[in-house]
Amino acid sequence: MRRLLRSAAAKPLVFALALLPLADLVLRAFGDALGANPAEALIRGLGDWTLRLLCLTLAVTPLRQWSGWPELARFRRMLGLFSFFYGLLHFLAYAWLDMGLDLGDITHDIAKRPFILVGSTALLLMLPLAATSFGAAMRALGGARWQALHRSVYAIALLALLHFFWMRAGKNDFAEVGVYAIVVALLLGWRLVQRLRRAVRDRNNRARAGAAAPMSTEQDA
Ligand code: HEM
């Protein structure tokens, strides 16, 4: 498995796999197979894949640590960019099919419907992450600032979840949202636990270093 993950074919394969949901939606749209309300099915399908790819992006680091396969990190940026790509298509499908590309109607709708506002905020927050996901941007920002900026992915995940929850709340349908809520809670909870562990370890190391310092002074004397 690790050989496959390291191979030159792995990235093109993940790239092709990430395009499959789009190909499926497009083929079904042209084949009149999107059901009674094709516009809604297309917008929703693209929204679903934005969220799924966001969850997959967040799953890379825990999976990498759990499996001991550092090669998994190679796919994180691509998955994050695909999530943004599907989010953009989701927005464009809504702007075109629901709003007839009328900018006035779009801004009015964003201001009027909180779930659309929350989704738009999530998409806007994705923009700087996508723009700075390349080596040159990373170097220009510096490691610490780049990491601080990319921590907004947690806010994006929570906003995306709230967007989905709010939309389904109108239909009193929470089953699927519940599944995503558990997945996002596990992915963000895992990070929180890692941070707490690191903080405790650092504090213990500092305490140990502090305790050792007077002894070495005594020995020196
Ligand atoms: C990170 C950004 C976003 C994510 C992850 C996301 C995700 C989702 C999801 C999962 C759904 C529900 C699909 C389903 O029912 O199966 C949805 C629906 C929807 N989203 Fe988003 N979305 C995002 C941004 C946006 C933006 C920017 C807009 C528009 C400005 C938008 C407009 C809509 C609309 C109109 C629906 C369908 C509502 C309906 O059919 O009643 N979303 N989105």
Q: Care to describe what's here?
A:
This protein has 221 residues and is mainly α. It is built from 10 helices and no strands. The site of protoporphyrin IX containing FE (HEM) has 24 residues, from helix 3, helix 4, helix 6 and helix 9.
Which properties best describe this structure?
221 residues; 10 helices; globular
Query: Which sequence of SSEs, written as H and E, runs from N to C?
Result: HHHHHHHHHH
Note the total helix count.
Answer: 10
User: Which ligands, by name, code or SMILES, are bound?
Assistant: protoporphyrin IX containing FE
- Strand elements, count: 0
On the 0 to 100 scale, the average pLDDT is: 94
Helix content: over 70%
Work out the radius of gyration: 22 Å
- Specify the overall morphology: globular
The stretches of 5 or more residues where confidence is low (pLDDT under 50) are: 217-221
| Main structural class | mainly alpha
Q: Terminal Cα separation, in Å?
A: 57 Å
**How many strands, which pairing sense, and closed or not: the largest β-sheet?**
none
- Proportion of strand residues: under 5%
